[in-house]
């Protein structure tokens, strides 16, 4: 799937269902991913097929959010910055996990 084709599909989805509706679906898909992660952690999933399915859904919806706000380029730049920051934290000796240390 090319980036151009993906953008075309996002445009068609927004046109058919409306941007607000697509944002609501994005929230739903994020929740579904949360449930799959929880089930995986609780040992209620024998394989990762559900997780893979929800990750795909979330990636599609995140793409639609970026499309809606026309901010994909900003997100890409911010992601690069945050990955570099993560790398620094990973390489810092003795650094606690940012979430677990709270
Ligand atoms: Mg889903």
Radius of gyration: 17 Å
Bound molecules: magnesium ion
Low-confidence stretches: none
**Fraction of residues in helix:** over 70%
Characterise the protein shown here:
With 102 residues, the chain is mostly helical. The protein is 77% helix and 0% strand. It has helices at 3-17, 19-41, 49-69, 72-91. The model has no long low-confidence stretch (mean pLDDT 93). Bound molecules: magnesium ion (MG). Magnesium ion is lined by residues 29, 32, 54, 57.
Which terms summarize this structure?
102 residues; 77% helix; binds magnesium ion; mainly alpha; single chain
SSE layout and pairings?
Layout: H1 3-17, H2 19-41, H3 49-69, H4 72-91
Helix pairs in contact: 1-2, 1-3, 2-3
Compact summary:
This protein has helices at residues 3-17, 19-41, 49-69, 72-91. With 102 residues, the chain is an all-alpha fold.
């Amino acid at each position: 799937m090319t980036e151009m084709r993906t953008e075309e599909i996002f445009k068609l989805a927004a046109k058919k269902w409306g941007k607000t509706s697509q944002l609501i679906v994005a929230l739903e898909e994020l929740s579904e991913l949360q449930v799959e992660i929880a089930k995986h952690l609780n040992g209620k999933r024998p394989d990762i097929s559900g997780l893979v399915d929800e990750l795909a859904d979330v990636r599609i919806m995140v793409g639609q959010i970026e499309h809606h706000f026309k901010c994909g380029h900003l997100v890409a730049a911010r992601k690069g910055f945050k990955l570099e920051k993560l790398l620094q934290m990973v390489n810092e000796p003795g650094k606690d996990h940012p979430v677990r240390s709270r």
